[in-house]
Write a structure and sequence with these properties.
Elements: H1 2-12, H2 16-40, H3 44-50, H4 53-57, H5 59-103, H6 109-191, E1 193-199, E2 204-207, E3 212-221, E4 225-230, E5 233-234, E6 244-249, E7 252-257, E8 266-274, E9 277-288, E10 318-323, E11 328-331, E12 336-345, E13 354-359, E14 362-363, E15 370-375, E16 378-383, E17 392-400, E18 403-414, E19 428-433, E20 439-445, E21 457-464, E22 470-472, E23 482-486, E24 493-501, E25 516-517, H7 523-526, E26 527-531, E27 537-541, E28 556-563, E29 567-573, E30 584-591, E31 598-599, E32 610-614, E33 621-630, E34 633-634, E35 644-645, E36 659-665, E37 668-673, E38 682-691, E39 697-699, E40 709-712, E41 720-729, E42 743-744, E43 756-763, E44 768-773, E45 785-792, E46 799-800, E47 810-813, E48 821-830, E49 833-834, E50 844-845, E51 858-863, E52 870-875, E53 885-894, E54 901-902, E55 912-915, E56 923-932, E57 935-939, E58 946-947, E59 958-961, E60 967-972, E61 982-986, E62 989-990, E63 997-1002, E64 1005-1010, E65 1019-1025, E66 1032-1037, H8 1039-1052, E67 1059-1067, E68 1073-1079, E69 1087-1092, E70 1095-1097, E71 1104-1108, E72 1113-1118, ...
Parallel strand pairs: 2-9, 11-18, 91-98
Antiparallel strand pairs: 1-3, 3-7, 4-5, 4-8, 6-7, 8-9, 10-12, 12-16, 13-14, 13-17, 15-16, 17-18, 19-20, 20-23, 21-22, 21-24, 24-25, 26-27, 28-29, 29-32, 30-31, 30-33, 33-34, 33-35, 36-37, 37-40, 38-39, 38-41, 41-42, 43-44, 44-47, 45-46, 45-48, 48-49, 48-50, 51-52, 52-55, 53-54, 53-56, 56-57, ...
Helix pairs in contact: 2-5, 2-6, 5-6
Amino acid sequence: MGGRAGHLEAEVAVSSSARAASWASQAGRASLLCAVFLSLWVPTEMSLAAVPFYQKRHKHFDQSYRNVQTRYLLDEYAAKKRTSTQLSAQRKSSSQRASGQTALGTTCSICAKRVSTELEEEEQDKKRRYQSLVASYGEAKRQRFLRELAEMEENVHLARSQAQHQLDRYAIQQMVEDKLSGERHSYEERMRRAPEILVRLRSHTVWERMSVKLCFTVQGFPTPVVQWYKDGSLICQAGEPGKYRIESKYGVHTLEINRANFDDTATYSAVATNGYGQVSTNAAVVVRRFHGDEEPFRSVGLPIGLPPSSVIPYMHFDVQFLEKFGVTFRREGETVTLKCTLLVTPELKRVQPRAEWYRDDVLVKESKWTKMFFGEGQASLSFSHLNKDDEGLYTLRIVSRGGISEHSAFLFVCDADPLVTGAPGAPMDLRCYDANRDYVIVTWKPPNTTMESPVIGYFIDRCEVGTDNWVQCNDSPVKICKYPVTGLFEGRSYIFRVRAVNSAGISRPSRVSEAVAALDPVDLRRLQAVHLEGDKEVVMYQDDLEGDVQIPGPPTNVHASEISRTYVVLSWDPPAPRGKEPLMYFIEKSVVGSGSWQRVNAQTAVRSPRYAVFDLAEGKPYVFRVLSANKHGLSEPSEITAPIQAQDMIAVPSAPGRVLASRNTKTSVVVRWDRPKQEDDLLGYYVDCSVAGSNVWEPCNHKPIGYNRFVVHGLTTGEQYVFRVKAVNAVGTSENSQESDVIKVQAALTVPSHPYGVTLLNCDGHSMTLGWKVPRFSGGAPILGYYIDKREAQHKNWHEVNSSPVKERILTVDGLTEGSLYEFKIAAVNLAGIGQSSDPSELFKCEAWTMPEPGPAYDLTFCEVRDTSLVMLWKAPMYTGNSPISGYFVDYKEEDSGEWSTVNEAATANRYLKVCNLHQGKTYVFRVRAVNASGVGRPSDTSEPVLVEARPGTKEISAGVDEEGNIYLSFDCQEMTDASQFTWCKAYEEVGDDGKFRIETVGDHSKLYFKKPDKEDLGTYSVSVSDTDGVSSSFVLDEEELERLMALSNEIKNPTIPLKSELAYEIFDKGQVRFWLQAEHLSPDASYRFIINDREVSDSEKHRIKCDKATGIIEMVMDRFTIENEGTYTVQIHDGKAKSQSSLVLIGDAFKAILDEAEFQRKEFLRKQGPHFAEYLHWDVTDECEVRLVCKVANTKKETVFKWLKDDVLCETETLPDLEKGVCQLLIPKLSKKDLGEYKATLKDDRGQDVSVLEIAGKVYEDMVLAMSRVCGASASPLKVLCTPEGIRLQCFMKYFTEEMKANWYHKDAKIASSEHMRVGGTEDMAWLQICEPTEKDKGKYTFEIYDGKDNHHRSLDLSGQAFDEAFAEFQQLKAAAFAEKNRGKVIGGLPDVVTIMEGKTLNLTCTVFGNPDPEVVWFKNDKDIELSEHFSVKVEQAKYVSMTIKGVTSEDSGKYSINVKNKYGGEKIDVTVSVYKYGEKIPDVAPPQQAKPKLIPASASMTE
């Protein structure tokens, strides 16, 4: 500035006095600038306190008011400058004139005058030039000064704005810190928890020089510190640079070992620690060599005490259980240890197999109730305090690479002695869920009651963690096993217990639940991090960023989440935006139709978005609404819920079905039952037992079991029991089932004894056919098959022949070596297992049989052993020789005798023979020889010794006729077991239930009935009982005995007329009903009667009756079948002595079905006489996703009128249906719930009318939606990304979409539920997923799925990487633009576009402005600033109400008035045209005033910064 002034002074060549004046003026200007700068540079707090509001907010006053002093000083400075310049010039001219006169004193007057004139002219010329230079210089200085002053003002304004911005940020930071200072500690306390490992380390086996990465996931607060160890030594990355790489990201911790070698084989552990605890996990890493190089042995073990690895140990272990825990009975409160002693091979100290304990197939974890130990050759599970929760089937599994070894046994825990006699047992299995700020739901399972009175309800107690103060939650007992507990204190943790109540008293309390915290699970999702300067970060609620929301909005989505007979639990979503202040809720109820509302919680505000409403009138429907409130006031009510009625949503289950008890062991029984028909939300079953006849019931299980089979232990051997079962759900216990049949507790099934009598039946040189006899004892169960082993002579090892059991007692063994000797042994198998093998057979040589005689008979058995006789049976040889077998010889001898005797002199053709004339008490052996044309073949193997002596109490077969005249043979056996079976034979060939015989066996009694006895039934009948000591008998039915039995049968039976068909009905096309029957044969003298409801009817026009005796058909036809015809129809036939009767009962549903069918057929007949529907209304869906209603018509003519109606309202269609084609259709585009209703198609002409109805509702509507889903799913477009200010939206376009379609969104294969973060919705042509405020966690694959009833249609999009980054960047831009648009300065309303006013009046323009931060408001007239005065005044109230007043308007006040409203985010300008007319003048014709339209003002660069 000084340099530029000196340059100008050199050009003008002013004197030193002028320079002094110039320097003085510059000093004055500098002081002036300092004064101006100091007046403007005032701290923000001082300016806010000293300057009025309108001066801060209005640009007009803000600039002009502060520039008055500046302008005055500039004017004064300019005046002084001009005065000093003039004085200097005058002094200079006078001195010059004096010197001139002295020098020219001798000059003549003319010359002097001429010189004087020239000098004056020159002086005036210099004066003019000087004045011109001074003027130009002054103007330049003034302009330069004004520019510099303006620049300085702009810099001052910018500095003030930046200072204000910094101060605002500091104020916000202080406000946030002050607000959160009190809450931060409580949140941190609630969030603090010990580390918890979510995903454990996994063991790895890798090749040498490969890299391996170990990962695990841990959570906790504060964030745990993780350290890695190798064989117990801390891993240091700096110790081996590049060897290890340790990373931690989002709770996932990784240790990467680069180029692993043998030294890296070890156990690696990770330990996570924070101030509240420590956890660890470990894994084994094994490094192996390529190409079979020698690998050093390394012992990698898992230390005892740490949780075992979730992977199978890589070692192979053989595990044997030496001692096992058995079925255990204990009482509540006692202690018990389940222990097994193990032999683990190989035994390694640092490597062990994994031991797992399961209860009812659920993995048991250590807790304060259970402790586990595994090591030193044993595994144990200890219970410090038993409860019924611990009852169940416990399984110990030892897992290794060699497989799984396991052992199971049941632990029974019965009720402790009640505190009051007759009180019920304690409830069990407490669970807590749906916890919130002051609310939680508690569920439990009911106890079993046998001899006690039924449970009438439950008391729920709560206790704050850390105290012993139990508080009862309910005043009266609740009847269902679920209760919503309210009144909790936010941030505190609670435990719960339940006590059962009956008429005798209160039970002991249940086991306490796990601790649950009274916190809103949504709170953590509402926390956001605000980044300040540097690395500072403040956590605040999302509510703090919602703006100045004071009174909250109403809650949304109010609905009933739990409904029972005693309470209704209401749930809702908090309002959005909700404001910064704490929210409370008030619930109001109203009886449907009453019109009045009653506040439910008038005394206590609710903080959770859940509330249980009690004391509702039974049978009355209610509606509810919810209001939200904070300290600023109460919101509007929410939307009213649908009518809700307090009632039990589930019913007490029905009684289980048939109960079957079967034998298991000497002290246990297996009980099975059919599930109940009604099993809503079943919790399980209770099984009770009672000694037969005592009626004293005891519980078999004390905790509900979830399956319909149970093994009852602890029974008395030999005692008889009955069992019953009841089902249990949350509402209560069902009625007892029917009692089971009486069962006797007997010994367990055993494996069968060994077979015997292994015989070679045939050999072809490469295979042998073997036969053997059944074991003498089956083990109490039928034999399921046999296993055969073989070995070659001189070999030690046996080899199995068949891998699956063979049921027949004949087997051909293939793959043998010709000429070799083989021996065999056989074992039988039943339900209990495989029995002992037989003794090895004799050595059989594998050489082909070529002899012409037959081979040996086999399977010699004996029955009907009496004192002097027995019956011998055998089977024909497998090898018959060169000709068929013609007979058999039977040889016998005493056991110790050497000579054989032949029983029959001539060969017998039968394969059985009764051997008589034996000596009582002697023991004999037998053999059989087959005969063919070539001679007598090889004898069979010698039979086992048989003692000829009748067993004591031997019974014989008896013949008789039962009460119905049926002929039978009967036999009793008292020695049979459960596995015994009766086998009936004719001629010693087994018979069964076929066309000639029927066998009935009940217990130890069996009968063989003759269905149609005749002479073909003559012969020898025998019966044998398996699994006994040879109990058998025979009976010879000869002709005389058969005639006696048939005569007795005829006397007993009443003669009847056999019927081919019983009385039946038939409906004709015209609705006539025909009743008819057909007899086998009717003689001409046969008579009959029709009886209806005990009244005989005769042939008439109403009942047309006739009989065709040739065919035996008797019928009655009724032309009109009505409601009066309900009853019983009977036909009685008499034919000589024989008679017959057949009845048909038509009442109730059966009669209604016939009546409806008859009426339908009659109406169908009448309907088809005129126009009618050949096919009634049905529907399908077109390729354009339109629902098409279709019907077919018939018998129409030109005059026939067809109409479509919906809910009896005529439907207008574009084209009339063409009845000649016979097909009519109605299209329903874009089906929705508004299209629900009853659709009718009508046909009508002079012959009659017909109607077809299709109701679109319920299942029909659901099927239509599924069909549309099939079309829409096939037409769905790929997923597309659309960014919005709220977030990222994924869209799937399709032909049509409605919310009724079964559509789901998935993120990383996890189903997405609509929430504040992920909103699911759609329009008619697309479905969308709105990801609000997306974060890194929202990356991944998104899938849209629509289900059409059969298939799922999928569309997927991978929203990660560049796709996510681009979408997120666009969202941020849109969000910033939306935020600016929301908070920019704007005029909300109040200004018209045109104002007409008479001169002399007062004009007041008023409007409301908005902006955040508060905007600056500037008024203009004709685009120029308005100078405020008494005539023009501006007023701003409460930072939002702005008015401009013009007092005494004149014609000069006409013009365009504008208001500018602007803040850092932009603003808008509104123009108002003011027209002033004089008194008496005609009011100007102008258009009616309208709302003025704003013009947007963009944000300036300085403001946005």
